[in-house]
């Protein structure tokens, strides 16, 4: 929004440079975004008095004008205008001035030098008149800056007004705040005009058919007016705010809009059928041509101002062409109303139509401030258009909007602000804002004016007190921020970075979930993930409770990416889930869920991509746990109902289950409209954090002595996991057996039913000496005996 510095000074006494004023305004809570000095385009253009005019000796069409511009010597200027005469006051563009696209220089015309220019109104951008030199209708001191003579030597201040402060959308509202800021007083315009004996209510009637959308409507009649251009001072102010002057009536409504922040509209009385204004909803398919010369199709959601036959304006947005003020208008009806802000916003959006009026009504106007606004407009109409203002206002106000009462406690004020403000000072601050205050035992019952809809609670009033007290006067206290454990944040960052380094992309979904996700995942009725935290006011059933697992949303991400023809990708989400624990209390653990979709596993540059397998996911999870320094990792078969029975496992750290991974069933994928092979892992990070070694990492010296590799092939039951076998082999001598790696699995006719052949490479290495064959053979025999005793495993070959 724009503020005129000179205009504000008419209401409040200000004796500050504009820059200092803007700094104070920002600190008071009205943020200044920029300052523009009007009149800069008229630099080096001053008011001059024509001393003499004589013909140019070498031209029949040019004159030599001697013009006094308040300097020691008058300027000799050659001019071709026919209307220039002696003793006229005219604008003079001196050398260095810029008029239009031309910079004024000393020139020689037909042999005689000219030291400036006498421009027309069009050349100065004042109007479209270009038939001659612009002649000023008042006497000025020679040398007066032209901008000052036109009363446009002003500063326009751009400020950011938050949507909850509609009272600051006019000069009066800003003046009220500035008066508090400067500990001064402000004065509203003095409203005086004469009324005729004829009553407005005898000429026009008003009916509101939807009081919810229009709580109040005021109308006033003016007769025998003369529509003409508005005064220059009014036009200049409108131009400064980016509004185009139209005629004195329309300009008055725009002027009062800027002054009070409340929109008005004027109708040609002769175009109102049966002398009655009806505020109603539009009929379906009803059409209305507005002042932007566009025809709009309306619906019952739109509010219109109508007469008995037709709509004549779109309420709160724009007037209609069929009732606009024309040069022939003699009688008018002036409207000042209050409309439902949500309805105006919806209408403006649906029709893609925004105006100065809709901008303000969308933010909420004060229904109790209409009388002063319409009286001010009536005053200016009589001042600029003459005529008679009919007596009284037609005011339809079915249900009066009452001010709110808020209790403000002195102790609470001082506790929040960390101050020792006395009750009498608090009362003074509140009264500055025009709040009605009644005191009892040091506390205050504060009545909030209806022009302040932003004040709803005690804390809002405390903020106003803080503004009065001065933010700079509040104590600055340094307090250590309460943040998460730094180790925890480091672990989270490490998890995210590791997955990204292995080709994963992170996603972030909403925390809301739909009740049908549990059935899609085949979860049983007593599954802990069905203990949901429901929302009191959900957006819909689709978002009716907080999610208890990240899996459904991630699978929806998979389906979306597949629909965009991405065939192979890896996704993960690291975020909170929400459910109730054993004590039925809310619990918010951090969960990590990832998926692998499509073909990966390129081993060499010329090899073809292979379909991702269960072991790819297992390898990624194992590498992640290794990076996090998780000790004692073990696995087991998972009973999660959404995995294939033979391709899944549960993860354990120190015997505590932390998650699972596996290939998803086709039936589960089909419910999410996924046709691609998908592998998933799901880890409870909060539970994992309790088992991560936070001690500093120490590095060992590289072993100097060579390793010895031996292969072993065994026949074992399918019910015995590879992890158990690897663990058993290492347990024979953990210091020497450094690594056990599976390199072959075989099922065939040579292997008995429900059994398989597993081949491992065992790495033996000592940190103290080179191992001998004799020592390795003995250790190998102990491994075979251990496997035979513990699992009845048979040796296939050496």
Explain this structure:
There is one protein chain. This protein has 798 residues and is α+β, with helices and mostly antiparallel strands. It has 22 helices and 46 strands. It is elongated.
| Strand arrangement across the biggest beta sheet | 29-33-36-42-41-40-39
Give the overall silhouette.
Answer: elongated
Strand content: 25-35%
Radius of gyration, in Å, reads 42 Å
As an assembly, this protein is: single chain
Main pleated-sheet profile = 7 strands, mixed
Low-confidence stretches: none
SS content category: alpha+beta
Residue share in helix: 25-40%
Q: CA-to-CA gap between the ends? A: 87 Å
User: Mean of the pLDDT scores?
Assistant: 91
């Amino acid at each position: 929004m724009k503020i005129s510095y000179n205009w504000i000074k008419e209401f409040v006494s200000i004796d500050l440079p504009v820059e200092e004023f803007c700094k104070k305004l920002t600190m008071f809570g009205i943020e200044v975004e920029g300052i523009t000095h009007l009149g800069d385009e008229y630099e080096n253009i001053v008011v001059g008095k024509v001393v003499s005019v004589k013909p140019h000796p070498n031209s029949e069409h040019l004159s030599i004008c001697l013009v006094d511009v308040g300097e020691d010597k008058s300027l000799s200027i050659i001019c071709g205008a026919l209307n220039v005469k002696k003793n006229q006051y005219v604008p003079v563009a001196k050398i260095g001035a810029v008029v239009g696209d031309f910079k004024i220089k000393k020139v020689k015309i037909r042999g005689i030098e000219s030291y400036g220019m006498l421009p027309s109104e069009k050349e100065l951008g004042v109007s479209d008149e270009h038939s001659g030199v612009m002649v000023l209708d008042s006497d000025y001191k020679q040398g007066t800056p032209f901008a000052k003579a036109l009363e446009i030597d002003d500063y326009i201040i751009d400020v950011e007004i938050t949507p909850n402060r509609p009272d600051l959308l006019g000069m009066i509202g800003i003046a009220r705040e500035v008066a508090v800021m400067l500990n001064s007083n402000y004065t509203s315009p003095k409203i005086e005009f004469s009324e005729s004996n004829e009553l407005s209510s005898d000429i026009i009637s008003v009916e509101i058919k939807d009081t919810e959308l229009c709580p109040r409507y005021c109308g006033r009649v003016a007769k025998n007016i003369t529509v003409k251009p508005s005064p220059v001072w009014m036009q200049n102010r409108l131009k400064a705010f980016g509004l185009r002057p139209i005629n004195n009536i329309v300009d008055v409504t725009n002027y009062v809009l800027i002054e009070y922040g409340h929109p008005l509209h004027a109708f040609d009385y002769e175009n109102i059928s049966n002398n009655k204004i009806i505020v109603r909803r539009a009929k379906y398919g009803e059409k209305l041509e507005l002042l932007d010369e566009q025809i709009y199709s309306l619906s019952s959601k739109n509010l219109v101002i109508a007469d008995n036959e037709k709509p004549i304006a779109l309420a709160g947005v724009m007037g209609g062409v069929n009732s606009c003020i024309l040069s022939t208008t003699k009688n008018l009806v002036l409207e000042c109303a209050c409309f439902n802000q949500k309805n105006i916003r919806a209408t403006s959006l649906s029709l893609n139509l925004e105006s100065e009026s809709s901008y303000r009504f969308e933010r909420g106007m004060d229904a109790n401030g209409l009388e002063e606004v319409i009286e001010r407009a009536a005053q200016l109409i009589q001042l600029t258009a003459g005529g008679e203002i009919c007596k009284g206002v037609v005011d339809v106000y079915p249900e009066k909007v009452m001010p709110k009462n808020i209790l403000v406690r002195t102790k609470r004020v001082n506790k929040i602000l960390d101050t020792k403000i006395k009750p009498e000072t608090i009362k003074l601050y509140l009264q500055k804002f025009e709040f009605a205050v009644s005191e009892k035992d040091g506390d205050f019952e504060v009545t909030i004016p209806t022009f302040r809809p932003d004040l709803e609670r005690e804390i809002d009033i405390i903020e106003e007190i803080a503004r009065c007290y001065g933010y700079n006067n509040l104590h600055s206290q340094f307090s250590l921020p309460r943040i998460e454990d730094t180790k925890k944040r480091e672990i989270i960052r490490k998890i995210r970075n590791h997955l990204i380094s292995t080709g994963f992309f992170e996603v972030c979904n909403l925390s809301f979930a739909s009740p049908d996700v549990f059935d899609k995942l085949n979860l049983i009725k007593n599954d802990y993930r069905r203990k949901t935290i429901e929302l009191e006011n959900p957006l819909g059933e689709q978002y009716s409770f907080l999610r208890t697992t990240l899996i459904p949303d991630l699978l929806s991400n998979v389906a979306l990416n597949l629909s965009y023809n991405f065939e192979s990708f890896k996704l993960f989400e690291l975020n909170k889930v929400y459910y109730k624990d054993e004590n039925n209390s809310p619990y918010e653990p951090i969960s990590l869920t990832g998926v692998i979709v499509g073909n990966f596993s390129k081993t060499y540059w010329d090899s073809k991509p292979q379909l991702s397998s269960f072991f790819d996911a297992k390898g990624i999870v194992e590498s992640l746990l290794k990076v996090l320094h998780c000790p004692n990792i073990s696995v087991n078969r998972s009973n999660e109902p959404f995995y294939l029975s033979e391709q899944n496992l549960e993860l354990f750290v120190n015997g505590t289950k932390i998650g699972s991974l596996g290939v998803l069933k086709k039936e589960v994928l089909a419910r999410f409209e996924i046709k691609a092979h998908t592998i998933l892992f799901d880890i409870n990070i909060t539970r994992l954090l309790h088992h991560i070694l936070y001690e500093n990492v120490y590095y060992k010296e590289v072993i100097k002595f060579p390793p010895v590799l031996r292969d072993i092939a065994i026949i074992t039951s399918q019910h015995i996991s590879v992890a158990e076998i690897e663990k058993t082999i290492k347990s024979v001598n953990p210091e020497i057996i450094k690594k056990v790696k599976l390199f072959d699995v075989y099922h065939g006719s040579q292997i008995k039913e429900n059994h398989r052949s597993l081949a491992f490479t065992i790495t033996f290495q000592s940190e103290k000496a080179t191992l001998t064959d004799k020592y390795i053979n003995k250790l190998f025999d102990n491994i075979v005996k251990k496997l035979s005793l513990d699992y009845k495993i048979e040796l296939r070959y050496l």
